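Let us work through a complete example step by step.
Step 1: write down the sequence.
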Amino acid sequence: MPPVSARLPVFPWDRLEPYKATAAAHPDGIVDLSVGTPVDPVPDEVQRALAGAADSPGYPTVWGTAALRDALTGWVERRLGATGVRHTEVLPVVGSKELVASLPAQLGLGAGDRVAFPRLAYPTYEVGARLAGAEPVPYDVEVFAGGAAGAGLDPAGLKLLWLNSPSNPTGRVLSAEELRAAVAWAREHGVLLVSDECYLELGWEADPRSVLHPEISGGSFEGLVAVHSLSKRSNLAGYRAAFLAGDETVLGELLKIRKHGGMMVPAPVQAATIAALADDKHVAEQRERYERRRAALRPALEGFGFRIEHSEASLYLWATRDEPCWETVGALAERGILVAPGDFYGPAGERNVRIAFTATDERVAAAVRRLTA
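Step 2: predict the structure and record it as tokens.
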């Protein structure tokens, strides 16, 4: 029997190592804009909550404490616009990437089942389908625009439809009309719709909406699950703090399975999550940092010959010089700047690069100097 890893593509970031070495040789050091990892401090109140719960010798529960579920339901109501959210409609998870990679298997999908995800997308959607033995189906998000919603997307055997708005890598935001069309299509065909909304707090030229908002969902969570993360909004990537909200039937089944797997968010991280969701001030402060870095990088890139596409939200600029993406990666590496090639996110990205603005102010300023010299 071939190993499970044989189902998967080569881990894409390994291919970037030679370019990273070139960029690191720059006299002023590397400016790494390839990965959207936070570099700013964890908010003080979150650190205090984590430390205060450090003496947690017992096993946490998979469902989390009642206080955590209160924090999750309260945030979903306050931030996503839903009403009357119950504890059975939220579920903490150990980071959103773990969830994305394992969800098809946890849903019991396998051979003969199909999983759809945007053609330009975070590669873990495809990985999750392949790990479960299901068929990955890339689709164009434009299918939910206009009057013929879902045209060209075959529902036969389709069990899971991923949305990602704001998008990684493009920063594209689906309109309320597109989201409603996707919800209606999924419900019509009995397909579970899971919306990855990890960048929802980071809209720049658009106001991203959740599929759980009553104007999108029709006031019902039936057939809908939203994925949320504290990695970007609260600089908690190192904490692996994330959660699901939505259809209680789906979440109830996942809870049963995750209990057997011992998929528990550590007790101190649960306490930190409660503190992070209770405070909006640090989120606004972090937004200001990212907005400042974005405002510095964008004109510098445009002056260097880039065209910025979409990018109305998220932590990235989706850029092209109308050349193969690896040529662009190489040209920037010679200037000590490392970016992600667009084909990491599917063949449709072969002439784009994804440029993160998650570096420090000092490193962003260095990139701007190099681009404008």
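Step 3: interpret the result. Residues 281-303 form the longest helix (23 residues).
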